[in-house]
Amino acid sequence: MKHILIFNLVAILFVACTNMKTETAKDQNAELIFPKGNKVTNNNFTGTAWVQMFVSPDSIYDASIGNVTFEPNARTNWHKHPGGQILLVTEGKGFYQEKGKPAQHIQKGDIVKIPPGVEHWHGASSSNGLTHIAISPNIDKGNVEWLQPVTDEEYVEVNKN
Known about the structure:
Strand 7 and strand 8 (about 105) form a beta hairpin. By secondary structure, the chain is α+β, with helices and mostly antiparallel strands. The protein has helices spanning about 1-20, 25-30, 150-160; strands spanning about 40, 45, 50-55, 65-70, 75, 80, 85-100, 105, 110-115, 120-125, 130-135, 145. It has three helices and twelve strands.
């Protein structure tokens, strides 16, 4: 059942993304696939970001699914998911980095599969915003573990490449 939900969400996203117009900023806001949601006010992000939750885990769906929008320079703290995570990038450009590995550029259309327990961060580049659907499966294995912020020095280094 969980796979059907995720497949249907991906199909809807694909159709919506291919039908979007990109004329002006006003048109772009009018053409958002999903609302930005609520501005993040906790210490798990640096910069300005919004989260719109779609699915919370319950007795039927063992997953958390939400839309995350980052302004330029915004990013998550280092964190890990006991059940893994999947990112579907729907707009913009940014980065994904696993601890101890080089950062990867991510952009609209990319899918990032993050294995369980891997320490990582993701967010916008310094010159572009980023929006992605974050899917956290296997919530029965535990919730996200938030760690230290990505330092400005780490972030500046990533943006040089």
